[in-house]
Every structure is written in C-alpha cells, then in structure tokens.
Amino acid sequence: MRLDSAEDVGERVCEIGDTFLAHRHGMLAVIEVYLDESGTHHGSPAMSVAAVWAAKSDWANWTIDWVQSKAPIRIFHAVDCSNRDGEFKGWGKAKRDIFVIKRILPVISRHYIRGTAAAIDLKALAASLLSRHGLVMDPSENARGWYYICVQWAIR
User: Fold this and answer.
1) pLDDT confidence bin for 27, thresholds 50/70/90
2) What are the phi and psi torsion angles at 118 (to 5°)?
C-alpha cells in the first residue's frame, strides 16, 4: 500500500486502530518496538521473542553509549560473546566476563528502555500439550506459527 500524504497515513492509522479496538471506543497508542528472536532454527529446543521500546531521545542516547562501550567489538552477538567466538575469538573467560560486567551490562541500566519477552519450550510442548491431545508432531516443523505466538505474547 502506498501512502502519499499525511492524510493517507492518518487514515491508515485510524483503520488499524479500529481493527485493534474491535470497533469499540477506546484509545490506541502507536509505539515503535524493536523485536529480536532466538531459537527459530530447526531442532532448537526453545523459541523466544524479545520486545524493547523507549522514547526516541532515550534510544539516541543509548545508541551512542552502546557503540562507545562495546568497542572494539563492531557487532555484538550474545552467542559469540558467550562462546568466545566471532569477534570474541581468543578472549579468555575472565576478559570476556570483565567486558560484559564492567562495560556492556551498565549501558542497559543507564537508560530508560523497557522490554518484555516470551518463550516456548518446544520439547515440553511436544511432550505434554500436543501428546496429551493425541497430536504427534514435531513443534519445530511449525516454527513460523510458534514464532508468531511468541511475538503476540511479547507485544501484549
């Protein structure tokens, strides 16, 4: 859909608002939310989605602080940090731990960024809920569906 004017955007926001409010009276806030997922690959035992949000000025300040604090790391991947792989290759456990405790974690607490997360234990889902109802299936085969469930839970 092409939105050519502010009126088009406003009209579209109203339509979306009506949908979310089920055409009842109420208020709807539009918030820019950043999402990240983990465990969407085949064979993952669990899947999670995190949602974080903040005021634009808080994001701007956090970004500056984050970029400065994580140097010399260009792109911070938690899995690489944990496994001391990628840009963390050759780091000892002590060096990595000091980096995370002294430089990375304080960035998060210095800024007013809110968040939530949702996760599904896919193995437990298969073992209990699905099998209890006679459904024989591998939950990782429906990863897209479980992903959307996590997204819905996270943003609610």
Assistant:
1) confident
2) -140, 145
- DSSP states along 47-114: EEEEEEE--HHHHHHHHHHHHHHHTT-SS--HHHHHHT-GGGTT--HHHHHHIIIIIIHHHHHTS--E
Angstrom CA distances, 49 to 54, 55, 105, stand at 17, 21, 20
Task: List the beta bridge partners of residue 120.
Answer: 47
How many angstroms separate the CA atoms of 80 and 76, rounded? Answer: 8
Select from 94, 36, 99, 97 the least CA-distant residue to 71. 99
d(CA 37, CA 91): 26
59-106: per-residue pLDDT in tens?
999 999 999 999 999 999 988 999 999 999 999 999 999 999 999 999
If we measure between CA atoms, which residue out of 109, 117, 102, 118 comes closest to residue 58? 109
What mean pLDDT do residues 32-53 have? 85
Spatial separation of the C-alpha atoms in residues 135 and 50, rounded to whole Å = 28
